[in-house]
Queue: 2 jobs
Job 1
Amino acid sequence: MTDAKRVLITSFVSRREDLAVDLGAALKTPEWQSEGDIAKALRRLGHTTEMCLLYDDVEPLARMVREWKPDIVFNLVDEFRGQSVNDWKIAGFLEILGVPYTGCGPRGLLLSKDKVLTKQVLRHHRIRVPDAFLAEPGNVVKKPARLAWPLIVKTLTEEGSRGISKASIVRTDEELAERASFIHRTFNQPALVEEFIEGRELYSSVLGNARLRVFPLREITFGTEQSDAPNIASFSAKWDEEYRKRWGIKNDFAKDVPPELERKLVRLARRTARALNIDGYARFDWRLTAAGQPVLLEANPNPFLAKKEDFALSAEAGGLSFVRLCSRILRLGFERSGTTPVKASAGTTPATSA
């Protein structure tokens, strides 16, 4: 098959000892769902795949590039040396090696990971974000007069709602100081304190480099009206299936979104991607104010890419099966590097141009 490529899937582990994981068994588990789904899709497209896991050393990646000579790297590295803020360094290293890779480039990853810098850039582009301040370790933490209760306390750089729970929503200076201290101790970084936006939470999925395609909106919903029920996309609300079942939490396609608001979110998603230099694929998380105005909570380049997760389901609703989505992501990686784009293999339909 003349268009078959050698694709190196690069992912990460959070502990050095996990480098010895049995990939044959691991790829069948939920924890490795993204890597497993992508490997299957790539093989269905006719490509040959290998995997490289990283913790704190880039030499295994350099060695695989030298010896196996992949045509492209499918980059799934979300953290390096145990820190998610380091993911941009792997994209930069792949550029130094001169090998094409998928997903966002280092500039977009670096801008998006620093949530304070993200807010500064987006405010400049008149994209609304929550008002916020930074609570540094060792400083007295009190609510500024310009902000009103409640507030929400987050990490500065972590993704996937790490560090977010019901206790993250605070209503007094005592609760604020306690939660900020928890972030300082647990994650060894400043705490980001934001105004809390009460309302619907919607997700925009975006695919493309210069031309951006926005897929149908997804939404997280909370199926109980109990007074102590969660109303934020906490870590447990996203990743703990038992917790999700107990509270009736679901992710589904957004319903009853006014057409004008939907069109506005498409425009805002494209503007946000361009303002932050995000290419490849990304997900943008929005909250709607009581007046129905969207506020950007998070910009997430290289979001979780399992077949049954929000990004892939949005792409499928937009006309791209998971196999075609992986093919399109590969082509975007080749296009950015200026090399020959990969074509869809026999039995698949080429993805529409984003």
Job 2
Amino acid sequence: MGKAGKNVRRAAVSALRAWAKGHVYADSLIERHAERNHLSSQDRALFKTILNGVLRNRSLLDHWIGQFRKGKIDAETRDVLRVGFFQLLILRIPDHAAIYETVECARKPVQGLINAVLRKAAHFRARMLRELPDIELAIQYSHPHWLWKRWKKLYGVENTVALMDWNNQPAETFYRPNLLNPPPEGAEEPENVRDAMATGHYYITDPSTSHAPELLAPKPGELVLDACAAPGGKAIHLAGLMKNEGRLVCMDSNEKRLPRLNENLERCGVTIAEVAQHDWTAPAPAELHDSFDAVLLDVPCSNTGVLRRRVDARWRLQKIDIANLVEIQNAILREAALCVKPGGRLVYSTCSIDPEENIDLVSSFVEKNPEFTLGESQQILPFKDQTDGAFAALLHRSPAS
């Protein structure tokens, strides 16, 4: 494997070091570090597997490392060991490649230590895997203890274990046919899907993302607002349900995301969209008040329903973050609701499985805003529905008296 193998492990360690500094999300590190280390497509795939696998199994890897190395380990050496242990115990890469190439990517002063620890792990691998079921569940499935305790209280032990196991599996890629530009016959064959995506016949999105647009059920000719639209998956679905008839206003708080939103809409043949920047934690523009037949509000959230895809989010998220997010979500809902015309409707949605961000929040909003009533709501749970987690609730505004 030689230089290429060394580069894969070096890229993984380098990306883990960058991630630990807290400035970059894991998914954005993959392309950057693959290019920096001149990885081939095959090596890039292994690099991505190692990086995501180490982040998904971080607590378990540290538990195993602690069995062979007592005392303090500097952060970079620990990341090298994590990369090695992941290959040996989870990927089951042959010992020579896993150990030699990992040792070679480390700094000279610690190569002897890393070599010794990895060789011990390889020697005791069968015992370690045999003892895996005896490890504390939060560590075994590598989730923060506070999240394990929170979910256990909400969903019970069995469902929480199933949820953590789901989060640790590689996420599938789903291709949704574009309602405005249906795929030609034969395009559903795997080798043709990528070409069909480039021409807008498909777009990538999890099945769970369809619930909110379909609950809103926009009709052709309506004036519809997608308030938090980037990167555009739900907006494309809305336009399809509207048959490209009417007007679809797509907004996002981050101006830097608008070019990609525009590009995705254009590629998929959406002709009724207008794109603009607005932060809904600020007052809603007065000219938008009482304007829209239908509003889709997909708010920023904890991402607890999509931890399978956002592999590092579990380690970024803190308990206090959910309380802070609820404040932001309430503020956004209050402002967006002002834009629903009398007799109109709003769907509030998240990719969270936490009731505080979902049913508790919309129920509280309805209590404080009697002109709105709560209609159908849907909580999608990975361990039950076998898709990403999501929530959507339909709110109706009373007609003008």
